[in-house]
Amino acid sequence: MDDARISRGGLSPRLWLAGGWLLIALLAAIFAPLVAPQDPLAQDLMLERLPPFWLDGAEPGYWLGTDSLGRDLLSRLIFGGRIAFIVAFAAATSACLLGSALGLIAGYFGGWADRIISRVVDVWMAFPPVLFAILLVAVLGTGLSSVILAIAIIDWTRFCRVIRAEAMSQARMDYVESARIAGYGRIGIMLREVLPNVLPSVVALLSLEMGIAVIVEAILSFVNLSISTDDPTWGSIIAEGRLSIHQAWWVLVFPLITLILTVLSFSQFGEALKARFDPVLR
Amino acid sequence: MSACLDIRGLSAVLPNGQRVLRSVSLTVQPGEVRALVGESGAGKTMIGKAVLGVLPKSVRIVEGEMLIEGEDLGRLDAKARRTLIGARTALIPQDPLTALNPSRRIGAQMTDRLVRILGWSGERADTRIRQLLDEVQIRDPERVLKSYPHELSGGMRQRVLIAAAFAAEPRLIVADEPTTALDVTVQKQILRLIAQLQRDHGTAILFVTHDLGVVAKISQKVSVLYAGKVVEEAETTQLFDAPQHPYTRALIAATPRYTDPYASLKPVDEAVLAGLSAEIAAADQDWRPGHG
């Protein structure tokens, strides 16, 4: 038991590394105007394609170098993080609420509710998600709220399917039967007996979904469908970096590393949280 | 005085029309332990579930009545039936590992029912639960109440479930093979506890089991079930002294004995099973739903 506690619980390096990165990235995003060394939008053609600090020709104050318009890469990454985190939290939470609620209803009540919800999920998942997202944003118009809405509309099915399956297996448990015998109503049983037992999965999925939302937002801004303003996003920085890969590799590599670390951290953090939330694993 | 539980001619079918209960009749008088014995698949658990109103959706009751303290469950609407079952019955389940909600503390689970269903005050429920934990010989109620189910052993969990079943003073408890999932050494203690609490509280129990040894220890009356049909019912002593039905005789003969531990196990005789099949086929021939 103690071994399990150490490997799964609070002391796991996985949780610390993932949580640490997310915390740093989140704080940097929140306090971007204070933290960012330069103005992310300030162009200076005298400073174009400066290399990162450890290479010859680097300028102090431009730690990760500059892009082809002379804008500071680190500052742009920090400001891009704001949009990434807003999208991650808002979109993942919306998808989670919608999907988990429907999944819980489908799994616990079964019958017609399940049939209808499951068929909708099947139809939904027949669309390729990224194309669906591009289509939705094209219809809804670009902008932060459209991106959030598009991701939520597409990805609620992830929650729905997993939570439905979990709720179904919970609904067959003896303690649910005991609650029925005792005279609890169906909604009461769903909320008191079933929901707490699917919560660890909800939390893990939510964190994973935040990572996915970050990727989808990056893809949308990569194809120029995310935020229409000049605000930097990780996807748009990657798109620009791709064009100058032979002259300034860092403009592509640093946002990619940032993106990968963030997505990876979200998923690892989710797994670790699941282990902490689950009383049996705790 | 009306029986605590009175089942009259209960038949149930699966969607394919196969009968799973064949005109089952049995009564449990107040304060009495009625054992319901039979092999797996005989429909013992099904009867328990029918009484408690938690039959699987696929099983349909086609005829018969179930009365709890003289109130016909079939005549009540769904809500009144739930209320009646919730207030007057309780279940001691088979598997203590899945019968407690893993994500809630024992104390919350135990008091919850008293507070929410019976409308007791939190304080009263708490006192009651502690009293019952004491009766099931749990020495450190503080720790147990704060524990999550996985932190307790199987035997402890079954004690908790027994305490929970008796806490609301039900008139009837359905005990569905409550010792089957436990270690042999723990089984005996648990059985003794159930018997003790049953005597102290005067609760009627419908005790579902496949173990004749358990039947002999705990019950006053027995119904022997085969393929959803009651083939014999008798006082427990009478059943062991002078079993009437060949199947009962075969079951008793099949029970391993300490006096001759090396004797090979005797399965139920082919001829007896053939006789039973014929008996059931004959019963099915005359039977039409609603006219049986």
Describe what you observe in this structure.
The complex is a heterodimer of chains A (282) and B (292). With 282 residues, chain A is mainly alpha-helical. Chain A has a single domain (2-277), classed as Orthogonal Bundle (MetI-like fold). Helices cover 73% and strands 0% of the residues of chain A. Chain A has helices spanning 2-8, 13-30, 32-35, 73-109, 111-125, 129-140, 144-171, 174-182, 186-222, 234-243, 250-277. Chain A starts with a helix and ends in a 5-residue tail after the last helix. With 292 residues, chain B is an alpha/beta fold. In chain B, the strands form two sheets. A six-stranded mixed sheet of chain B has the order 6-7-8-3-9-10, with helices on both faces. A four-stranded antiparallel sheet of chain B has the order 2-1-4-5, covered by helices on one side. The interface between A and B is medium-sized, with 19 and 28 residues.
Number of helices of chain B: 11
Broad shape of chain A:
elongated
CATH class of one domain in chain B: Alpha Beta
Looking at CATH, the homologous superfamily of one domain in chain B is: P-loop containing nucleotide triphosphate hydrolases
State the CATH architecture of one domain in chain B: 3-Layer(aba) Sandwich
The tally of strands of chain A reads 0
List keywords for this structure.
heterodimer; A: 282 residues; MetI-like fold; 11 helices; 0% strand; disordered N terminus; B: 292 residues; alpha/beta; Rossmann fold; 6-stranded mixed beta sheet; 4-stranded antiparallel beta sheet; 10 strands; 22% strand; globular
Explain briefly what this protein structure is.
The complex is a heterodimer of chains A (282) and B (292). Chain A has eleven helices and no strands.
Q: Any chance you could write out the topology, listing elements then pairs?
A:
The complex is a heterodimer of chains A (282) and B (292).
Chain A: H1 2-8, H2 13-30, H3 32-35, H4 73-109, H5 111-125, H6 129-140, H7 144-171, H8 174-182, H9 186-222, H10 234-243, H11 250-277
Helix pairs in contact in A: 2-4, 2-11, 4-5, 4-7, 4-9, 5-7, 6-7, 7-9, 8-9, 9-10, 9-11, 10-11
Chain B: E1 5-13, E2 19-28, E3 33-37, H1 44-52, E4 60-68, E5 71-72, H2 78-88, E6 89-92, H3 106-116, H4 122-135, H5 141-146, H6 154-167, E7 172-176, H7 184-201, E8 204-209, H8 212-218, E9 221-226, E10 229-235, H9 236-241, H10 246-254, H11 270-286
Parallel strand pairs in B: 3-8, 3-9, 6-7, 7-8
Antiparallel strand pairs in B: 1-2, 1-4, 4-5, 9-10
